[in-house]
Design goal:
This protein has 260 residues and is mainly α. Helices cover 63% and strands 8% of the residues. The chain has two domains: 159 residues, no CATH class; 89 residues, no CATH class. The strands form two sheets. The protein has a two-stranded antiparallel ribbon with strand order 1-2. It has a two-stranded antiparallel ribbon with strand order 3-4. β1 and β2 form a beta hairpin. The longest helix is centred in the first third of the chain and has 31 residues.
Length: 260
């Protein structure tokens, strides 16, 4: 089973590192938050710009130029400031916050280089400058969905990927209900858990650790697919009646952990 897109790299010391890619849902969620924050900043800047427009006659007198020319200068400066703020927002945060923006930090995803190293100023700048192209006609979304490494154009040019941050949780940190404990005992005696590979077990663990961060629809659909695939692997005829897919996966996790 491979429900989470993994990215592996090998360091010069021949050490293999594995990362979980952020996924399109998390990236959209982070972008929405960033746009809300950026929107407030732009509103403030536009409010300041409006004050200058209201005082065009005064500015024209001070600089001894025509009022329409003052308006054009203010408009040109306004466009420059908006673009600089748009680009600078992502460049500054991703450089100073080690690949994070407020949205990414909230969603717990991060930009890193293809080799696993922290993102540089040059790479953050490239990603930000190419962001308008990625957002035009949702080109970036197309590349993320259909690309194996979930890269938008800016990521390809800059040589970066976006990963899901480690939560620092281990299997023993997961809390389960008494119903899961009871069902786990049933599964130990009525299924063939030996058919479940360590990779399958790791996939279940990753789901249980990350499910609270997923959108409800995505979580429900992923749990359903995962549960029915696990059911077939362990040779279980049917998932017990009135058992949710989440409860079933918790029980499988516990049963496998106790047995092996």
């Amino acid at each position: 089973m491979n429900f989470f897109n993994q990215f592996k790299i090998e360091t010069p010391e021949s050490i293999e590192l594995e990362f979980t890619l952020a996924g399109v849902g998390n990236r959209i969620y982070a972008s929405v938050i960033d746009w809300i924050v950026l929107g407030f900043i732009l509103i403030v800047l536009l409010s300041i710009s409006a004050l200058f427009f209201f005082n065009v006659p005064i500015l024209a007198t001070i600089f001894s130029i025509q009022e329409d020319q003052v308006g054009l200068w203010i408009l040109a400066i306004q466009f420059f400031v908006i673009f600089a703020t748009y680009v600078g927002y992502f460049v500054i945060f991703e450089t100073l916050w080690q690949g994070e923006t407020p949205g990414k930090r909230f969603v717990k995803i991060r930009v890193i280089q293809d080799n696993g190293r922290p993102i540089t100023l040059q790479q953050a700048t490239l990603r930000a400058l190419l962001r308008p192209i990625d957002e035009l006609f949702f080109l970036g979304l197309f590349f993320i969905i259909f690309g194996q490494q979930e890269k938008r154009i800016g990521d390809w040019v800059a040589g970066t990927i976006i990963i899901q941050q480690k939560q620092g949780k281990k299997g023993t940190d997961l809390a389960f209900s008494q119903e899961a404990e009871t069902l786990a005992k049933y599964l130990q005696t009525n299924t063939d858990l030996s058919q479940l590979s360590p990779e399958d077990f790791a996939t279940i663990r990753r789901y249980l650790q990350r499910r609270e961060q997923m959108f409800t629809e995505s979580r429900v659909e992923l749990a359903r697919k995962l549960a029915y695939q696990v059911k077939d692997i362990i040779n279980l005829q049917e998932i017990p009646e009135k058992t949710t897919t989440n409860l079933f996966l918790e029980a499988v996790y516990l049963a496998y952990q106790k047995r092996f």
